[in-house]
Amino acid sequence: MTQLKTTDTHSLPIRSELIAWARLVEMTCAEPATVVELLDMGWLEPVRTGADEQLFRVGDVYRVQKLMRLCRDLEIPSAAGSIIVDLLERVERLEQEIAELKRLL
Question: How many CA atoms lie within 13 A of 79 on its CB side?
Answer without folding.
Answer: 3
